[in-house]
Amino acid sequence: MAIVLGPNRYGKAENRLLRVYRDSPRHDIRDLNVSTSLWGDFADAHVRGDQAKVLPTDSQKNTVFAFAKEHGVGEIEDFALTLGRHFVADVDSVDGARIDVEEYGWERIEVDGRGHDHAFMRTGSGIRTTSVTVVEGGAWVVAGLKDLTVLKSTGSEYAGYLRDGYTTLPETRDRVLATSLEARWRYASPDVDWSESYAAVRTMLLSTFAATHSRALQQTLWEMGRHVLEAHPEIAEVRLTAPNRHHFAVDLTPFGLANPNEVFHAADRPYGLISASVLRDDAPAAGSAWDA
Amino acid sequence: MAIVLGPNRYGKAENRLLRVYRDSPRHDIRDLNVSTSLWGDFADAHVRGDQAKVLPTDSQKNTVFAFAKEHGVGEIEDFALTLGRHFVADVDSVDGARIDVEEYGWERIEVDGRGHDHAFMRTGSGIRTTSVTVVEGGAWVVAGLKDLTVLKSTGSEYAGYLRDGYTTLPETRDRVLATSLEARWRYASPDVDWSESYAAVRTMLLSTFAATHSRALQQTLWEMGRHVLEAHPEIAEVRLTAPNRHHFAVDLTPFGLANPNEVFHAADRPYGLISASVLRDDAPAAGSAWDA
Amino acid sequence: MAIVLGPNRYGKAENRLLRVYRDSPRHDIRDLNVSTSLWGDFADAHVRGDQAKVLPTDSQKNTVFAFAKEHGVGEIEDFALTLGRHFVADVDSVDGARIDVEEYGWERIEVDGRGHDHAFMRTGSGIRTTSVTVVEGGAWVVAGLKDLTVLKSTGSEYAGYLRDGYTTLPETRDRVLATSLEARWRYASPDVDWSESYAAVRTMLLSTFAATHSRALQQTLWEMGRHVLEAHPEIAEVRLTAPNRHHFAVDLTPFGLANPNEVFHAADRPYGLISASVLRDDAPAAGSAWDA
Amino acid sequence: MAIVLGPNRYGKAENRLLRVYRDSPRHDIRDLNVSTSLWGDFADAHVRGDQAKVLPTDSQKNTVFAFAKEHGVGEIEDFALTLGRHFVADVDSVDGARIDVEEYGWERIEVDGRGHDHAFMRTGSGIRTTSVTVVEGGAWVVAGLKDLTVLKSTGSEYAGYLRDGYTTLPETRDRVLATSLEARWRYASPDVDWSESYAAVRTMLLSTFAATHSRALQQTLWEMGRHVLEAHPEIAEVRLTAPNRHHFAVDLTPFGLANPNEVFHAADRPYGLISASVLRDDAPAAGSAWDA
After folding, report:
1. Residue B244 and residue D66: Cα distance in Å, rounded?
2. Neighboring chain C residues of D265 at a CB cutoff of 8 Å
3. Neighbouring chains to A with at least 3 Cβ pairs closer than 8 Å
4. What CATH architecture is B140-292?
5. Is C198:C238 a contact under the CB 8 Å cutoff?
6. Which of A76, C60, D57, D203 could form a disulfide with C12 if both were Cys (CB 3.0 to 4.6 A apart)?
């Protein structure tokens, strides 16, 4: 029996990058959180403390900021691909790279009925994400969003479920359904108009959430994934994770009041947590696209 | 010398209330975080452990939810006034009440080009707040907003400041100015169209932030307060608190790159923190309007 | 009517300072979060954008780190006094300074039965705090702690309270009492052995929480404050704030199980929130000691 | 091509359970955060909205609280095994269960030199965790800890690393090394004295961190894992994740001060992030032990 080094990774997490485009008086801004992670021939760094093949995480950070100038940010998927390919191609000891990017949205502040040239306000709902994996000879692009908080005040039921000796939940044909959606989708190839695809998927996730009469959050997730795949041949698989943010109708009868689903307490914990993958049965292999 | 009880308060914090209005198929929702705090004749509860005059915080919570049904939520300022007046008028031992409300914004999800009847998405920038103080014979209303994250990519400088032996900061005529604004304003009377006033103040804060060429965050705060007071005779005082969310231009010269204010690192801590009050010199007395 | 500038402050918040004492192989460390805030003759910075009298927050940050070397950290109350007195005495435009410090505790990691010379582990319960206010001709020292999480599994009741039309809470003679205590105490003079006083107060707060049979959280706070003042003539006033972290006994009767206060659900929100001051009736005036 | 349902799970996350043992006046408490997650024959719930085979997450929550009474909490690994085996054995549609538990430590408050019978204080460093996976015919137990914050004020260097065109980091033979450790270890079998093993592993992780002269965080992680495996034949694999919480020596030369590694700024973001697995080359297969 011997003790050996297993899978390992290292990188610089959460490089908070603001890129300003100021070629004209009408500026544009991009606000990113970029994390890098590398793997490869790094056993000596662990086992012998020898750093000769280790590119410091500080250098990775520098690369993120320098590339934002040299190459621009562009689409975050392309920015992540460019970073990942650089590390794999240009650093001998690196076999693979994972680049995660979050993008925070901003809109122009309106002044006198027109968006201002260089003043911006954070927008709200949802953070755009990407996770790109690059290995020698291949790359996978996963795009996504998170913290998209949505709620239906009706059009959701929960009934007909399995009952065991620990089941006390009453059935309901009308409840509030609320979640903070995380969705990620894997592209079949890296030849995509990323922004257009992102915007269309986001719209479809929202409209499917709204339009689906939900018999369970599971069903809503499936419908979301199915609609996205039907409309987007460039996407091979969708993964959805959704906490069920419970809203409990408050019992007002002690105060002589009826409560026909009008007054709710929004609970924090515990919460239901549902996750599901929806995919094509002929989807190209995922490789290490999803590896955390 | 004796040891005595000083100022004291108690209440129920962070009642998370969702109110659904479903009188027609086109629902409306209001999403609030309500905190109550009472003071009065409660020395015995402290000194002798005698609760005879203490309305439990659990009852205060029940009141919040029941009033949301009985009276509706309406404007959050009115909801807070109604709650505060109830506690002061109807509970003998209560001399004063402070009701704090946060309101989270939601917009309708768009489906086929139209806002959906009962599906909603959290909106982004800024949380609406109110803090209402009610005592026997009076009431103060403070409205506000917080977490309004704004940024200017130019139109901000910092120069001409005092230099001491610990000053190393270089002057700049062009920097990024970013903050997460908290603004609160005290009304001269409770006879106001709260929503209209709120919307107008928010718009003015944003447009002033955008339009002011800033020689310091202090100046921006002053201009915000001044513009609000000039346009809103119903407001007696504005208080503003703004962290200076530093964005540092990254030195790219080691990589042979110029950085003419295009690539920034968004820092977390430390941050500048600026607060200021702007008020009318003939403003009615603040009473306990601002008491935390 | 004119619009005027009211109270205003500015400073550098959350300077995260680690000070290592390495005069011998047996190192000591001090881990602080230091915030500065100044007020004085700063109207021009607001109203005219003129920074000539404004010491940059960047310089304040530099001062914090430089003083940690020049003067050492010592007691955090002394460190804050030194910083505050410097700003008031040495910067003409400054009339007053407020210095807030949080200290995070560390203990030595044990190796072979002995605390290691230079390896440390964060300790747990509670963060030590101080808030020092310096003006020309005076200073106030408030010491304290926060995030001290404590719980009693019995020895707490809640009964005999006022009942109104919104009261449904059943009385109990035995409940769990849990809180995350914040305590702050104002010294009558700055001539104190700060660490010794802090340690003794912390011990007394804990032992009083434990030993008091609690008829309400209010009573527990009073007893804490009273005991501290009786034992510590150097302290003029104690202020306590305590969220009532509700633990609800779970109803297990649907599953044929009794629950004699053995199984609880720890709830997040809402929570009771109790605050009280306990002071000497001949305490010296508080000045601006407590100003936020 | 068809669109199909891929891997999916559901459960109740973050059941906050306090269990009081009060068989004698000297109480014991256990404070847990329990999350359940189930998979199996649930396609109909997604694709057709049919809940007939779905045990509600509310029932899972009830089971957690009821089992805390029926079976007691005992070791958290056993509690998780009991819960997981119940769901797999007793609910036909369930093929597998993952139970995650966090345990928060408490110690007795000292009164008159003795730990109090029923008053407790949260302890500090580190949260104990377990993740148990149960499938028909097998079970895997992963134990661990997280949020164990440790720091070395010397005995750490970083030099000899790979330099590319984006490398500016100066080499150092003496730096501060700080991290918030997350460690998880997989047991070879479920026949272990869990508490004894946990305590010994925690001690070894700490002492190895302290005693290892670190040439990189990678090396420290390897040494931790290696030492644990050498001493604990019951453990098959250790996985470690450690953010490198950078402490930067502050340049005090502008103020005429040397800084021989005495004054540091503790930075927030970005941070290095290192993860590694250390395992036996003859370790039993991991099955789905690590699945998130």
Report:
1. 50
2. 15-18, 65
3. B, C, D
4. Roll (3.10)
5. no
6. C60
Percent of chain C with pLDDT over 90: 96
D57 catalytic per annotation: yes
pLDDT value at position D190?
Answer: 84
Distance from CA of B246 to the nearest CA of D (A): 13
The confidence score (pLDDT) of residue C189 equals 87
Beta strands in chain C (DSSP E): 3-13, 15-21, 28-40, 94-104, 106-111, 114-122, 127-135, 138-152, 177-187, 235-244, 247-249, 263-266, 271-280
CATH 3.10.270.10 domain range(s) in chain C: 9-135, 137-292
The CATH number of the domain covering residues in D9-136: 3.10.270.10
Give pLDDT, residue A292. Answer: 64
Q: Are A249 and A220 within 8 A, CB to CB?
A: no
Of C54, C279, C41, C274, nearest to C177 by C-alpha is C274
Binding-face residues of B in 127-166 toward A, CB within 8 A: 148-155
Look at residue B253 and tell me whether its pLDDT is greater than 70.
yes
Residues 6+ apart with CB under 8 A from D204: D224, D227, D228, D231
A5 or C189, higher pLDDT: A5
What would the mean pLDDT of C265-272 be, rounded to a whole number?
98
Determine the average pLDDT of the residues in D83-94. Answer: 98
pLDDT band at B292 (very low <50, low <70, confident <90, very high): low
Cα(B133)–Cα(B142) distance, rounded to whole angstroms? 8
Q: From chain D, pick out residues whose CB is under 8 angstroms from the CB of A270.
A: 12-16, 35, 57, 61
ipTM over 0.95: yes
Strand partners, A158: A172
CATH 3.10.270.10 in chain A is located at 8-136, 137-292
Domain C137-292, CATH number (from 3.10.270.10, 3.40.50.620, 3.40.50.1820, 1.20.1250.20): 3.10.270.10
Let me know: does B238 contact C6? Beta carbons within 8 Å.
Answer: no
- CA A209 to CA B102: how far, in whole Å? 26
CA closest to C33 among chain D residues: D266
Give the whole-angstrom CA distance, residue B186 versus residue B132. Answer: 10
Quote the pTM value.
0.98
- What pLDDT shows up at residue A124? 78
Distance CA D170, CA A236 (A): 45
> Both tokens of residue C124?
């747990």
**Given a cut of 90, is residue C292 above it in pLDDT?**
no
- Please, where in chain D does CATH 3.10.270.10 lie? 9-136, 137-292
Q: Crossing angle, helix C57-70 and helix C76-90, to 10 degrees?
A: 130
Q: Is B170 exposed, middle or buried (0-12, 13-18, 19+ CB in 10 A)?
A: exposed
Distance in angstroms (rounded) separating the CA atoms of residues B31 and B68:
11
Contacts of B165 in chain D (CB under 8 A): 255
CB-CB contact of C46 with B218 (8 Å): yes
Q: How do residues B92-145 score in pLDDT, each as one tens digit? A: 999 999 999 999 999 999 999 999 999 999 997 899 999 999 999 999 999 999
- For residue range B152-199, what is the model confidence (pLDDT) as tens digits? 999 999 999 999 999 999 999 999 999 999 999 999 988 899 999 999
Question: Is residue C213 annotated as part of the catalytic site, yes or no?
Answer: no
How does the average pLDDT of chain B come out, rounded?
97
CATH code for the part of the protein at A8-136:
3.10.270.10
All residue ranges of chain A with pLDDT < 50 are: none
Cα B234 vs. chain centroid, distance in angstroms?
A: 18
Which CATH superfamily, name and number, covers C9-135?
Answer: Urate Oxidase; (3.10.270.10)
Residue D132 predicted with pLDDT over 70: yes
- In chain B, CATH 3.10.270.10 covers 8-136, 140-292
